[in-house]
Amino acid sequence: MEITIEAIQIAESFNIRKFRGEFSSQPFSGTNSEVFYAFTETNRFLYVFDYGVVVFGNYDALAQKEFLTFIKDYAIKPVDQNLTEEYRIITDREVLKPEVKNDYVTVSYTDAFTVHIVMLNTAQSVALEYYELLTDELISSSKNYIQELEDRGRLSISKTNLLKYIGKVLNVKNSIVDNLYILDDPNLVWDNEELNLLNKRLKINFDTHPRFKDLDYRLQIVEDNLRLFTDVLNVRESNRLEWIIIILIFIEIVFAFIFH
Description:
The protein has 260 residues and is α+β, with helices and mostly antiparallel strands. It has helices at residues 16-22, 61-71, 112-152, 159-178, 193-205, 208-259; strands at 2-9, 11-14, 29-30, 34-39, 44-49, 53-57, 75-78, 84-91, 99-100, 104-107.
């Protein structure tokens, strides 16, 4: 037996509570931040995360399209990029321990808990890719400003646009911090040695922890640049205030000469 997994980053986030209340099917498991469905009669699986990722198990293109049309009503800030991750689960009764490869995992048996773990790790990989793209964009834009500082000794960007950039950086950082839990191990692996082993090997395969460390390093670079731009903005505002004070003093002196 083989199960095809496909994870898609749909939006920055989903309203999970509203979705659960209005979706007709009963979930296999779920929390306030995620919900997992196992449709045993059709051997289909569905996993929805509040950080904007939907994971399909054994869904054909038509079924995926129908569900994506439905869930868009619960999406907050849809994502334009085509961010997907595909993976497969292959069942082989002769396998003693989970064998994880780049694009598939082989297990001795397949149940809803096994599919749950594979879909979770696939979703984490897509979410990390999305945050990697966001931080890449921030670093690229900050490089342009830094190059301008090197070439011209000043920033030509307006105060409003600079504040918008700072706001964008803070939004991305807060979004990542809010979703740090995506790296947490699910409760069901704690008391199941085989699921725990599967989860660990999948994390190694998807480079989950090294990618997160790299993401954290990139964010630190962006924060350092943000601190620099804030200092430049403060200096520019201080200079502007100094000139205003100088002009006001000059006007006062001129008026003093005129009337005395």
